[in-house]
Amino acid sequence: MPTFPLTMPKLSPTMEVGTIAKWHVKEGDFVEAGQLLMEVSTDKATVEHNALDPGFIRKITVKEGQEAKVNELLAVMTEGKDDPIEEIKIVQTLAISTPESRTETAPVAAAQFKEARGSRPFASPLARRLAKKSSIDLSLIKGSGPRGRVMSRDLAGLTFSGNEEGLSPIRKIIATKLQQAKRDIPHFYVNQAIDVTKLLSTREKLKEQGITVNDLIVKACALALKEHPNINSGFDGVRNVILRFQSIDISIAVDVEAGLITPIVFEADKKALPELSTTIKGLVKKAKDGKLLPAEFQGGSFSISNLGMFGITSFNAIINPPQGAILAVGGAQERLKMVNGTVTAYQEMVVTLSVDHRVIDGAAAAKFLKTLKGLLENEQL
Amino acid sequence: MALIEMREALRQALDEEMTRDSRVFIMGEEVAEYNGAYKVTKGMLDKWGPKRVVDTPISENGFAGLGIGAAMTGLRPVIEFMSFNFSFVAADQIISNAAKMYYMSGNRFSVPIVFRGPNGAAAQVSSQHSHCVEAIYSNIPGLIVIAPSNPYDAKGLLKSAIRNNNPVLFLENELSYGDKGEVPEEEYLVPIGVAKVVTEGKDITLISHSRMVKLCQEVAVTLKAKGISVEVIDLRTIKPLDIATIKKSVEKTHFAVIVEEGHLFTGIASEVAFQIQDGCFESLDAPIARVCQRETPMAYSKALEKETMPTIERILKTIETTLSRKI
Q1: What is the distance between the alpha carbons of residues B272 and B253, in angstroms, rounded to a whole number?
Q2: What number is the ipTM of this complex?
Q3: Which of these, A321, A327, A324, A351, lies nearest to A174 by C-alpha position?
Q4: How far apart are CA A210 and CA A226, in angstroms?
């Protein structure tokens, strides 16, 4: 094959088009088999691609930054440095023509090219199995075995070598639901630092009644939601309608052995602190024991995820659809601030509201957090 | 544990089984007065007397048949062939009677007999006395074929063979009779049909039996120094073949080489290779390879004899090709 084409390789199972991010060779260069030719940006990543056959780069038809479909001609190569250039045209026709016209014009070079590659990559049974498992296209791998056979070592680094684990039913729900939420919901995040010095001392007083910091936060959220019903809203992505929830039903993220579950405190705004606290305790216990009824965790109008007990500063939570917002609560940390010219120590807690921009805008989120901050800093809850 | 020779381990097995079961007796050429051609039965005549340690004329077909008849009528004979090459003279008795009797008699006669003796090449005994018979006899349904590589297995397997109710071919090796190995003082058995990983490794599996196991172990030591971890499997019993142990290993290493003293064509290696690809095709990263006796009658010449049989060099070269990397 004195003249042969270099075409756009299929670098991932879903790749249809690639962009030449960088050429590592120029016209007239000689390339060895295995030498780095170019970097191709695909739908997944930018991938380096090496030459499969040695030869001279005679003409580059797709420049850096340009796109080409899979199997489209990128460059014309020749075996010899000065092989006749006339054949380029033939090869070019081949590369961009349809399969039907290909047979009509079928030049010798094309037949040889096809034969050299073969339709079935040469690979060991193990390499085939590993490639299949990791969705690797064996035709793109240069084999190091006898006669170019692809062996498992040629896939090193490309295959997954750990143990695969099936999804438990709860894991499957978490995976599906959160993937969908993160993909479909235009999240934005609003942070608010809150001075919780007073809140923590209030909690000390209420400790004997079994009231926790989390209970106070749930209560404060319920009151803030009452004041801002636009936050107590959601979005039905299927019907494209905004949902205005009638009652304030707060889902609380509970870490259980199997994963994560969100039992609901119904009408949280109407419950006094002790009742709220008892309700939450009951729900958490049921969740840990795996005894929650569907009605107890399906639904809700707003969510709270609290990782404060682990001492983390802040984090961003994924919205629990069809709800429109979720509050991520960090841990209280001692900070210093200036109060009337004096350095004062205080306890700071950072909360982050993840918001569905389809329902709630930035200003609304900010106003809600301002109310929440006021409640947590000053009010007797 | 005592360090004893293979011949001593075999003698202990015979002696213990004769003590345990009065139906067990030994018969063969030179087993009694001469104390055995390779001294396996040394002192046995003195201890057990001529009724249980019986010298025969040079008539393999005759005394093999005699043994089979004795087994059918309730005794448990151990028949020694001075060499398994001579078993060919008795092949009709072994194949048509010992192996078939249980079937032909509608389960009325089992044949609890052991044929034992040296198998394979020794030191320059040429083509008619160097044969490896395992591939020939393993082709026959009804026979158990055992080929131990060391004193411990030899003793434990011979005891199991004597207690087994089927005809067993117990293949020893002349060059291994003097090999020493640790054997426990207390009684033990080695089960029939269970292979053993004698060297653990992760890069390639070497499968062998009888004297060739030693070669494989030497290869493993050589390659360990070069950073290649070789797993060596001693088949111990050829038939029934313990493919599970082999499979487990190949699924780990992805490469298999079979080393067999016997001939290439339709050898034990062919069967093992078939069963590997049948059982773990998708674990193989290269074709299965074998190192066997070359396809020629055994030469008398010392140099040619060595080259006819598998050598360490040949095994190394085959591993290099199989792994497709320089070693």
Answers
A1: 16
A2: 0.82
A3: A321
A4: 25
Beta-ladder partners of B74:
none
B259 CA: distance to closest CA in chain A (Å): 22
Alpha carbon distance B165, B101 (integer Å): 12
Q: Does the beta-carbon distance from B284 to A144 stay under 8 Å?
A: no
Nearest residue in B to A144, CA atom: B324
Residue A103 pLDDT level (bands cut at 50, 70, 90):
very low
**Separation CA B49–CA B43 (nearest Å):** 10
Just give the CATH number of B2-183: 3.40.50.970
Report the predicted TM-score, pTM, of the whole model to 2 decimal places.
0.62
Class for the domain spanning B196-323: alpha beta
Number of separate domains in chain A: 2
- Distance of alpha carbon B36 from alpha carbon A214, whole angstroms: 90
Domains of chain B by residue range: 2-183, 196-323
CA quadruple B261, B267, B273, B274: dihedral, nearest 10: -170
* A104 token code pair: 């009509």
The alpha-carbon gap from B92 to the nearest alpha carbon of chain A, in Å, equals 43
CA dihedral A214, A215, A220, A222 (to 10 degrees): 110
Residues β-bridged to residue A335? A346
Cβ contact (<8 Å) for B282 and A152?
no
Q: How far apart are CA B20 and CA A313, in angstroms?
A: 78
| Distance, CA of B51 to CA of B48 (rounded, Å) | 8
Q: Is B209 designated active site?
A: no
Report pLDDT digits (tens) over B194-249.
999 999 999 999 999 999 999 999 999 999 999 999 999 999 999 999 999 999 99
Question: Which A residues 115-134 touch B at CB under 8 Å?
Answer: 124-129
